[in-house]
Amino acid sequence: MTTGVPAITSASLAGGSGARLKMHREGPVLVLTLSNPEARNAINPSVYRTAAKAIRTTAGFRTVRAIVLRGEGDHFSGGGDLRRLARQRKLPPAEQQGHIDALHEWLMAIEEAPQPVIAAVEGAAMGGGFSLCLACDLIVAAEDAKFAMSYINVGLSPDGGGTDSLARSLPPQAALEMLLDGTPCTAKRLHELGVVNKVVPHGEAGAAALAWAQQLARGPFEVQARIKQLVYAARGRSRREQLEAERESFLASLYSDESGERIKEFLSPRKKPETTGEGPPT
């Protein structure tokens, strides 16, 4: 394994059309910043590949305990670069297929990362930007943030897992409303629907997401990774298959050194009386 990622203090990796991915560490948290503020942080295939590689590499290090994904300036991301897509129409479809595959590899890297990944959303999260938010494990949004599956407005069907994420999170009617209508949805409504986890004042999404990431970074690394695996794998399993997977994960956790240390600490007489007691009944 490379030792480059844990030592990151700051880095900026260029993409085409002015889009870049910035990276820096805040203790155990890796912060990834989409940087193309002049174009509402529009993203492109170079950024897709860079971000996927960064997350895949980071996954191998226990010193990185959580990841925050944010946009530079006033917006999270307006999605794909329409100027690039207009040019792409003159080129073979196979090339665009490769670009979409790169985007999807980024989203799979987020799902498969052992660390929790939190989207911090200010301003607009449109089209591919909205799909990207939905691919993250958790979402913190400013109260005036706007979300839209705006593909329909330019005659496109979604990529980036937008249909999958919404179909799994919402009733069909609500999912289809967002996918077919294309008008912006508020952070408040998405919070009421259970899609956005936390709504914070304007300008505070990044700080709130980082604080939450720092909190999660103090949790048990291997257990958090197993919980992510269980949640995402449950989508394609029967109830019995999921119960069996939970059993195997619990046993692996229970007999790990990490669990032994945490149980011992929890039961320590030095703990305050109100925090002592038995764990979950299993």
From TrEMBL:
- Biological process annotations from GO: fatty acid beta-oxidation
For this protein, the record's InterPro entries field holds: ClpP/crotonase-like_dom_sf (IPR029045), Enoyl-CoA_hyd/isom_CS (IPR018376), Enoyl-CoA_hydra/iso (IPR001753)
PROSITE patterns with a match to the protein in the record: ENOYL_COA_HYDRATASE (PS00166)
Q: Which GO terms describe its molecular function?
A: catalytic activity
- Entry-linked SUPFAM superfamilies: ClpP/crotonase
UniProt-listed Gene3D superfamilies: 2-enoyl-CoA Hydratase, Chain A, domain 1
Which family does the record assign?
Belongs to the enoyl-CoA hydratase/isomerase family.
NCBIfam families annotated for this entry? oxepin_alt, PRK07511.1
Q: What is this protein called?
A: Enoyl-CoA hydratase/carnithine racemase
